[in-house]
Amino acid sequence: MNSMNRRIEENLEAYLDGSLPVQAAEEFRAALEASGGDTRHLVDVMQKHSAFMRSALRTPDTGAEPSPGFHARVMDRIEAQRAASPFWSALLEPLFFRRLVMASATAILLLGFMLFSGGADETIAADAQNALHVIMAGEPEPLLPATTVSDGAQNRDVVLGDLTTYQE
Questions:
Q1: pLDDT averaged over the chain?
Q2: Where are the domains of the chain?
Q3: What is the torsional sign of CA 90, 93, 98, 99?
Q4: d(CA 123, CA 68)
Q5: What is the pLDDT of residues 22-40, one digit of tens each?
């Protein structure tokens, strides 16, 4: 814009938005005609851009209504896409996928903790083996008499085992 006439530079913005008074607009056009071809080309390009921006930023008609049946067509299209989608598309839903990942990570963490925490207590494993044998065979293994067990909690377990396996 260094080669542009001072009058053109001062009035360019008002000329482009159409707010230049009639007398000033005539003077602007006369100065533009007297200027070089580069200045005329630059103002012409700016005028086209200005017209484009005005048309692009024009507010839409607020009274416009969708055509009859528009909402029904949209819902039909949504249902058709939902029916055509593969069964694994539910796995790609963000919320479901996030929950699935968190549940899997929790299960892996718990299994890893159980495996690497030193194993299960041997008495728990033995009791589980006993219970499995009782369930599968129907015949309980003989339990230790209550007098040989020194722990109160184990005494209760022995009595409970005797009560649950009692047969007439």
A1: 75
A2: 6-57, 122-165
A3: negative
A4: 75
A5: 888 888 888 888 887 888 8
